[in-house]
Write a structure and sequence with these properties.
7-stranded mixed β-sheet; 4-stranded antiparallel β-sheet; 542 residues; globular; alpha+beta
């Protein structure tokens, strides 16, 4: 029928690539130190990966057993070492990238950002678009010997929806139930939603063995999946040793034998560790990029969806006055965040998507340019003199981003007191704060990114249950639009435009997914926001 997506049935070896809990692919702010490094060429990461034309940057005011000997060993120093290895509760930032060493998902993301087969070799929707059937690859098993079948998919979905400490149930509102029939997982939807193959990838449904997941606490310490590697030893918060999984469906294209994943020490020591061979791969603080390049390391940006914002609660004064909200918008100098926090590697943004990405809306570019004079005028119109407004900016730890916000708002007469609360997440996700900071690594489903930020129960919407007028209808229209429809891009950008009418968020900048590796490690696939080890080699066997 017209507009219906073509069933996704590649060959068997195809491989192209409203909750109250912390959103699983988010983080509260940058790790970089405040410093200025003018003249550095900015990298628009996802635009480079997804489009072949240049898009203008947004305007704004100026200890355990070692790996086996002789094999190819990846030694990865990570600043986001997982706090949890149960994929249902794994909580922050880039942790899903590390869990992807152990767990596979129904789908993956390719270099275009499209959903492609992983554990599921194909899928198709019914005519109405309210049911999608995933066909799993035959003969697969988890590392504990349990079969990878539709029953495992059903168990994973139900656990993500019902487990008390799940960080995922807010992402699965379109899924009503799953029927398991051998290798066919039939997903019944609560609404027409063509985003499901995009959604059920690494970020939202990494699938654990149902037998192991029957004891979630044990799974958290001894993960069991069907991914490319199997855990041999795990020291919580410190180190994990893994070996190649010979039963992984694409094992022939995994050329790494062992992985040593360690929690990175201070950022300043990572480069020396890479230079001396203690590590051969690491995520890199932007402040260390120059030192890494000078040390002869390969420094590169992995495409991503990162975006930071100021979160406002419009249910509380002074943000219940639109003029005060607009005054804050006009006070923000996005370029200062880029220069001081990303050392020129990031870009200014006023959307939760990078330029060049399909969901980025060019019509919404820079609607509130930096204009301190206009900001002061709006505050005066709202009846506020300089110094009248004092805001508590609540954050979990010291953060140079907060100091920039404090300085920029002081310039228009708003006093900001920075409050450090290590338990910041509790009032943030309970929507009790008036003012805070947040950053997200996004979702493979653009619609899920939008609803997380702008939906009435979105975890990143500090102003719950507020949502901008017209947003719900715009999102519903996108869900009803097949991804291969000629109307999809237009409808998706219209939903972005509707979301950006929200007065609850002021986006500031996008920080890159910056990495460094030894030259012995070959280039990685440029899959946006993901780390994929398919085809990667390590010269010299180490």
């Amino acid at each position: 029928m017209p507009g219906r997506p073509t069933p996704h049935r590649p060959g068997p070896d195809s491989r192209t690539g409203a909750d109250s809990r912390p959103e699983p692919d988010s983080r509260p702010g940058p790790r970089s130190r405040t410093a200025r490094r003018p003249g550095r060429l900015r990298t628009t990461a996802l635009a480079t990966a997804l489009v072949s034309v240049l898009v203008p940057v947004l305007g704004a005011c100026g200890g355990g057993a070692g790996a086996s000997a002789g094999g190819a060993t990846l030694r990865w120093a990570s600043s986001y070492f997982p706090a949890h290895w149960d994929p249902v509760v794994s909580g922050s930032g880039a942790q899903f990238r590390e869990l992807a060493l152990v767990y596979a998902s129904l789908t993956r993301t390719d270099e275009k950002g499209d959903a492609v087969p992983d554990l599921a070799e194909s899928w198709e929707y019914n005519d109405k678009g309210d049911e999608v059937t995933f066909h799993l690859r035959p003969g697969l098993k988890f590392s504990d010997g349990e079969p990878v079948d539709a029953a495992a998919v059903k168990a994973a979905v139900e656990r993500a929806k019902k487990q008390k400490n799940s960080a995922l149930f807010g992402d699965l509102t379109s899924i009503g139930s799953v029927d398991a029939d051998g290798l066919d997982a039939v997903v019944h939807l609560t609404q027409v939603d063509y985003q499901i193959p995009q959604l059920l990838g690494q970020r939202v449904l990494q699938i654990a063995s149902p037998k192991a997941a029957a004891n979630p606490r044990k799974l958290d310490q001894k993960p069991v999946g069907a991914g490319p590697f199997v855990v041999q030893q795990l020291i919580p918060g410190t180190k994990v040793l893994l070996k190649k999984n010979p039963d992984y469906w694409d094992a022939k294209n995994i050329h790494i034998d062992d992985v040593e994943l360690v929690s990175a020490p201070d950022a300043s020591t990572v480069v020396s560790g890479l230079r001396t061979g203690v590590y051969n791969f690491a995520d890199l603080d932007p402040s260390q990029a120059d030192a890494a390049e000078k040390a002869g390391l390969d420094v590169f940006v992995q495409p991503g969806f990162n975006a930071s914002n100021l979160s406002l609660n419009v249910n509380k004064p002074p943000f219940d006055d639109d003029r005060v909200v607009d005054a804050v918008r006009h006070a923000v100098n996005r370029e200062e965040f880029v220069d001081k926090l990303t050392f020129g590697h990031g870009e200014a943004t006023d959307q939760p998507f990078p330029t060049g990405y399909v969901a980025y809306d060019p019509q919404s570019r820079d609607p509130y340019p930096c204009d301190p004079a206009k900001s002061r005028k709006l505050l005066a119109e709202a009846g506020h003199k300089a110094g009248d407004i004092t805001l508590d900016l609540v954050i979990p730890a010291e953060d140079p981003q907060a100091e920039i916000v404090q300085s920029q708002l002081a310039a228009v007469g708003i006093t900001v007191r920075i409050k450090i609360d290590k338990n910041w997440a509790t009032p943030f996700f309970a929507k009790d704060l008036t003012f805070s900071l947040y950053g997200t690594t996004g979702r493979d489903s653009a619609v899920q990114t939008l609803t997380a930020h702008f939906g009435p129960n979105g975890p990143l919407n500090l102003s719950t249950p507020y949502e901008p007028a017209g947003f719900d209808a715009a999102v519903a229209k996108v869900r009803r639009t097949p991804l291969d429809s000629p109307d999809y891009v237009r409808n998706l950008r219209a939903a972005t435009r509707a979301g950006l009418k929200s007065k609850a968020l002021v986006f500031t900048y996008s920080s890159p997914n910056l990495f460094a590796k030894s030259k012995a490690v070959s280039d990685l696939p440029k899959n946006p926001a993901h780390i994929d080890w398919t085809g990667v080699t390590i010269a010299g066997g180490s």
